[in-house]
Amino acid sequence: MAPSLRIFNEESESPKLLRVGTRLDKYRIVSRLGEGGFATVYAAYDTIEDRRVALKIPESRYLENSQTIDDLQREVRIMARLNHQGILRLKDARFVDGHFVMVFPMGEETLADRITRRIARSTAVDYALQMIDAVAYAHEQRILHRDIKPENFILFDNKLIQLTDFGLARIQTTAKHVSASGTLGFMAPEQAMGHPGYRSDVFSLGLVIYRLLSGELPDYPFEAPLPGYQKLRKGLSSDFVALIRKAIDPVPSRRFRDAVAMQNAVSRIRYPLSDRSVSQQLGRPVTVSRLSQRRAA
Ligand SMILES: Nc1ncnc2c1ncn2[C@@H]1O[C@H](COP(=O)(O)OP(=O)(O)OP(=O)(O)O)[C@@H](O)[C@H]1O
Ligand SMILES: [Mg+2]
């Protein structure tokens, strides 16, 4: 009992960070990008492929416990199976010199960074449609994300947005016993009570989209008037606004049952933007073809 208590003591020594220049197999650490709940992300150079990658490396204390290793392996296997344009591809995952290294394509920035600057309405809506498409794909495969938030959407050129960190929130919570830190952030109220589900992913997704399109993050329990609501409506069709509101309903049973249902509702909206000439040009080819496949099915 005692050793695991020591391992999970949050006051234990700070995680060992890898120095710039360190070689891990064919990767060379270039810089540290940031830290999340249980891992550090580094920009690295792939010396064989001659390009930059993002390495996500869990703190070593998570590798001292067989339960968290099992959890990690299970989630990595799930991530490796996901194959979708809107989901960040896991390029590789392996042990190198005692570190567990997850390798991802290197993005330009996160959605959290991007929303601090102005985004054209049509671009923001295009992102929202790609995000819904990605989560719908995951839910179709019966996979929950559990930590949908702007930091976990990575932007690439050509206005491509990809969701990362599938299932990793589960490892964080089992390993750390997340303390009730007060703010819910993008988490659904029932998930904060320990009951994540498809509907809680829908909630988080809806809230990220609300934040993207309004510039504001409403506080639970979302009493009208919602902050930023006028801004949210600007340029959007009333159908699309209603869809976002439905996704963030505090009562789970009033939301979409999963992102597939949300995406089906989106596909029935002909014009997400109130300016129809712009709406018609929206959607990247893949999104459109997936939607039309869905309609045909
Ligand atoms: N593939 C990537 N390309 C570019 N930057 C990335 C990539 N993956 C992660 N990052 C950067 O690294 C930071 C830390 O990521 P990490 O996933 O560890 O933390 P987080 O998303 O803030 O929290 P969580 O642990 O809940 O996922 C991100 O906020 C982002 O800035
Ligand atoms: Mg993350």
Explain this structure.
The chain is of the alpha+beta class and 297 residues long. The chain has 2 domains: 5-105, Phosphorylase Kinase, domain 1 (2-Layer Sandwich); 109-294, Transferase(Phosphotransferase) domain 1 (Transferase(Phosphotransferase), domain 1, Orthogonal Bundle). It has 12 helices and 9 strands. Helix 2 packs antiparallel against helix 5, helix 4 (121-140) crosses helix 10 (259-268) and helix 7 (198-214) crosses helix 9 (238-247). The longest helix has 20 residues, at 121-140. The radius of gyration is 20 Å and the shape is globular. Residues 1-13 and 284-297 have low confidence and may be disordered. Bound molecules: adenosine-5'-triphosphate and magnesium ion. Magnesium ion binds next to loops. Its EC number is 2.7.11.1. It is an enzyme of class 2 (transferase). This is Serine/threonine-protein kinase PrkC.
Q: Could you list some keywords that capture this structure?
A:
297 residues; binds adenosine-5'-triphosphate; Transferase(Phosphotransferase), domain 1; alpha+beta; six-stranded antiparallel beta sheet; disordered N terminus; 2 domains; 12 helices; three-stranded antiparallel beta sheet; globular; binds magnesium ion; Phosphorylase Kinase, domain 1; 16% strand
